[in-house]
Amino acid sequence: MKQKELQKELLGQASLRYAANIYQAEDYLRSRGITMEVARLARLGVVVEPEVGHESFAGRLSIPYITKTGVVDLRFRSLNPAVEPKYMGMTGAETKMYNVLDIEKAGDYIGICEGEIDTLTLSSLVGIPCVGVPGANSWKKHYTRLLADFERVFVFADGDQPGKEFATSLARELPVTIIQLPDGQDVNSVYVQEGASYFHQKVGLNG
C-alpha cells in the first residue's frame, strides 16, 4: 500500500473511533445549533483515546475532511472557548477545502465561507450547498477552477477585517456575490440568533 493510501486509511479509522464519542460534545454542539444527526452525518467526533501522534488533540472535537475517496485530513477544535489555540491541524498537513462533496450536490449556486462549523451550518442546517477553508489565508488557485462553472458563488464574509479581506480577495478570483455578515458575527452565530431564513433572504431563496 502506498504511503498516501495508508495515511488515508489511518485517518479514516481514527475519524471513526473519534466519531463514536460525539455524544461528549452534545452540549457544545447544541449551543452552536448543530443537531446530533448533522454531527453524525459529518462524522464529527471527540478525541478521547488519541491515536499515536494525536496526543495533543485529546479532548478536542475532531472534524474529518471527507472526499469521494475517503478522509483526507483531520482538524481539531477546542470545546472550551478559553483554550487556545482554537483550532489545530495535523503536523505537516497542507490545508484543504472542506465539504468538497457539496460541489457535486450543488445546483447552479454554491457558498464559500471560513471555518468548518460555519460551512456545516450553511450546508446541513440552512440548506445552502457550501465549501469552506480553514481560514482567510487558506485559499488556493485550483479552488477557483473547482467553482468556475457555477452561475452564482456566494461568499459569506465574517464580520471582521480578515473576513472582509477574504471576500475581497476572492472577488478578484471569481465572479462572487459577497454576503457581508454583521460586525463581530460569523455564519454560525447569525444562524443561532436569526435562523435559516436570514440566509435564504440574503441569497434570494424562498423559505
Structure notes:
With 207 residues, the protein is an alpha/beta fold. The protein has two domains: 3-89, DNA primase, catalytic core, N-terminal domain (DNA primase DNAg catalytic core, N-terminal domain); 101-203, Dna Topoisomerase Vi A Subunit, Chain: A, domain 2, CATH 3.40.1360. The chain is built from nine helices and eight strands. The protein has helices at residues 3-19, 26-31, 36-41, 101-105, 116-126, 141-146, 161-173, 187-194, 196-203, and strands spanning 45-46, 61-67, 70-77, 87-89, 109-114, 130-133, 152-157, 176-180. The strands form two sheets. It has a four-stranded antiparallel β-sheet, with helices on one face. Strands 6-5-7-8 form a four-stranded parallel β-sheet, with helices on both faces. A hairpin with a 2-residue loop joins β2 (61-67) and β3 (70-77). The longest helix has 17 residues, at 3-19. It is globular, with a radius of gyration of 17 Å. The mean pLDDT is 93.
Short description:
With 207 residues, the chain is of the alpha/beta class.
- Rg over CA atoms, rounded to whole Å, is 17 Å
What's the number of helices? 9
The rounded distance between the terminal residues' Cα atoms is: 49 Å
Overall tally of structural domains: 2
**CATH topology tier name of the largest domain:** Dna Topoisomerase Vi A Subunit, Chain: A, domain 2
Which structural category fits the helices and strands? alpha/beta
Largest sheet: 4 strands, antiparallel
Strand order of the largest sheet: 1-2-3-4
Q: How many distinct beta strands?
A: 8
Helix content: 25-40%
SSE topology string:
HHHEEEEHEHEHEHEHH
- Strand proportion: 15-25%
The overall pLDDT, averaged over residues, is: 93
Q: Give the uncertain stretches in residue-range form.
A: none
- Tell me, what is the CATH class of the largest domain? Alpha Beta
What general form does the structure show?
Answer: globular
Under the CATH scheme, which architecture of the largest domain would be assigned?
A: 3-Layer(aba) Sandwich
